[in-house]
Amino acid sequence: MHKDPLPPAPPTDDPSHLARDLMVLHQLRGRGIKDAHVLAAMSHIPRELFLREPQRRHAYEDSALPSLSGQTISQPYMVAAMTEALAVSPGHQVLEIGTGTGYQTAILAELANPGLVCTIECLPELHALAQQNLSALGLQNVRFAFADGSQGWPDQSATLEFERILITAGAPQVPATLRRQLRDGGIMVVPVGARDSQVLLRIERRGNRYLELELMECRFVPLVGAEAWKQH
Ligand code: SAH
Questions:
Q1: Which of 6, 15, 177, 213 is the most buried (most CB within 10 A)?
Q2: pLDDT at residue 2 in the model
Q3: Higher pLDDT residue, 36 or 160?
Q4: What is the DSSP letter of 100?
């Protein structure tokens, strides 16, 4: 009979480990997230580190929570579903739009290592906060940009292409620059739709064709920028 492995015992210096394992068991595995690497990354990364009081005590609840400047840290299930759909492997070059607190960035960095995660945030206080959070975790394969991510990674010096692109804010349409920065054979995951509700799309590039799969309905804060909504 196939038996699932037991979750690892919580280390004594990390009291939140048990809460995290329960989150993984009930909110993620219980709802169909299967990718063992995604589940492992989400049982390692301490979500409470990315939150402040009074939110911190709710870190392992099944919900999005306020971060700074009217923005949110996404619901754990949504982070897991997006990450699973993105299918990140070690060595991948990943672009993330909407760094926020850096929680999703940390999970991508763990999965892509030794590949690089390039992440863009357009609000200065979140751009700064995410850098603090990720350096506290010792994750070094991340590059941060303070810019409008709807226009892609700002360093145009090289022919830039990413194997994976994740947009963690709701877009009115897929920004054309981001389509161009997706490598042939690459995958992009992006919520697209109205300001207050979107459909999560998984887009695979095949040459000049972009094959779209609708994953689920979702609700993200708006992607704001030149190739997106015009205001927060
Ligand atoms: N994944 C984040 C949550 C993202 S919330 C986390 O784990 O905390 C969406 C983020 O996208 C917000 O921080 C918002 O400021 C940012 N954002 C919106 N439009 C953007 C743009 N054009 N470029 C970069 N970041 C953007």
A1: 177
A2: 42
A3: 36
A4: T
Q: What is this structure's pTM?
A: 0.94
Average model confidence (pLDDT) for the chain? 93
Annotation says 74 is catalytic: yes
Rounded to whole angstroms, the Cα distance separating 87 from 71 reads 26
What is the spatial distance between Cα 67 and Cα 75, in angstroms, rounded to a whole number? 12
Q: Which two tokens stand for residue 205?
A: 């590039």
Alpha helix stretches (DSSP H) within the chain: 17-23, 36-44, 76-86, 103-112, 124-137, 176-180
CA dihedral (180, 184, 190, 194) in degrees, to 10, reads 50
Amino acid identity of 60?
Y
Per-residue confidence (pLDDT) for residue 124, from 0 to 100? 98
- CB count within 10 Å of CB 120 equals 24
Over residues 172-178, mean pLDDT: 97
- The residues lining ligand 1, judged by C-beta closer than 6 Å to any ligand atom, are 67, 71-74, 97-98, 100-101, 103-104, 120-123, 126, 148-150, 168-169, 221, 223-225, 228
Determine the Cα–Cα distance for residues 195 and 190; give it in Å rounded to an integer: 14
Count of CA atoms in the C-beta half-sphere (13 A) of 92 = 25
Burial of 14 from C-beta contacts in 10 A (0-12 / 13-18 / 19+): exposed
CA 132 to centroid of ligand 1, rounded, Å: 16
Q: Is pLDDT at 231 greater than 90 in this prediction?
A: no
